[in-house]
Amino acid sequence: MILGSKLEKFQERFPERLFDVGIAEQHATTMSAGLATQGMKPFLVIYSTFLQRAYDQLVHDVCRQNLNVAFGIDRAGLVGADGGETHQGVFDIAFLRHLPNMVIMMPKDENECQHMVYTATNYDSGPIAVRFPRGNGLGVPMDASLSTIPIGKWEVLKKGADAVILTFGTTIEMALAASENLQKQGIHVEVINARFIKPLDETILHERMQKNIPILTLEEAVLKGGFGSAVLEFAEENNYHPYIKRMGIPDRYIEQGEVDQLLEEINLTKDQIITEINQLLLSSNDKQKRA
């Protein structure tokens, strides 16, 4: 998918280092594994929906052998009207998260994305994936020099003591907008860029859950087996009991349509975030009163 993933300039500069294997995702994955066994660092750029075709190769040829293969997962999330229902990239977190050795990350903008690509290129402890959405960047300034991001390290974007929103990628902007609106109501909500979906930032999770404040997880991906499920698992494994609400893609196939329209249909919006935070705070306050 040289054209689809905008690899034309790379192909022009490094034609001998780019291989287009066509509609053969299984082969692309195993070929990447083979290159990794010979000390090379392959970067497999592939649509989220097409990575599903190579699941067995992911399990046995890459992750089981803990090979240094980097994945650039294009079209991660909802893809828009011209992509079609089958191209919604909403399942990859759920089917990658439970694979041992796999690291999964997603940037908040194009500047963070270039640092994640650099991080993935220099990571030598196994497979690592960078998810990124379809479309253009936000137009943010780009750093002139690249640096690696510590694996599993999240980023606090906005401080607040009443509740926490954990999110990443395309849903960060709506989370920040919701937090700003809630602040006008006197409700101070922290927004955290949970850019590493696996591994989680356990330091941040311990600190927030020990405070027992409500947590909202937000993802443009399926809820079942997704990022929010990972946060719930962490709470259960560590015997924490904060109020946690997950927002994301419901348990159904998402039809074709413009992204904004689809987000409205599944209630993945700024207004719904505000509603959910208010409900979480009511439930948490009622619990404290009963205690």
TrEMBL record:
Q: Name one GO cellular component term.
A: cytosol
Question: Which EC numbers does the record give?
Answer: 2.2.1.7
Keywords from the named record: Isoprene biosynthesis, Magnesium, Metal-binding, Thiamine biosynthesis, Thiamine pyrophosphate, Transferase
Q: Organism's domain of life?
A: Bacteria
Pathway(s) served: Metabolic intermediate biosynthesis; 1-deoxy-D-xylulose 5-phosphate biosynthesis; 1-deoxy-D-xylulose 5-phosphate from D-glyceraldehyde 3-phosphate and pyruvate: step 1/1
Kindly list the cofactors needed.
Mg(2+)
Tell me the GO molecular function terms.
1-deoxy-D-xylulose-5-phosphate synthase activity; metal ion binding
Question: Quick check: keyword Cell membrane in the entry?
Answer: no
- Coiled-coil positions are none
Q: Which Gene3D superfamilies match?
A: 3.40.50.920, 3.40.50.970
> Which InterPro entries would you find in this protein's record?
Dxylulose-5-P_synthase, THDP-binding, Transketo_C/PFOR_II, Transketolase-like_Pyr-bd, Transketolase_C
Q: GO terms for biological process? A: isopentenyl diphosphate biosynthetic process, methylerythritol 4-phosphate pathway; terpenoid biosynthetic process; thiamine biosynthetic process
Q: Does the keyword Metal-binding apply?
A: yes
Q: Where is the Transketolase-like pyrimidine-binding domain?
A: 1-140
Family membership: Belongs to the transketolase family. DXPS subfamily.
**Oligomeric form and interacting partners:** Homodimer.
Q: Which PANTHER family match?
A: 1-D-DEOXYXYLULOSE 5-PHOSPHATE SYNTHASE-RELATED, 1-DEOXY-D-XYLULOSE-5-PHOSPHATE SYNTHASE, CHLOROPLASTIC
This protein's name: 1-deoxy-D-xylulose-5-phosphate synthase
Organism name: Gracilibacillus boraciitolerans JCM 21714
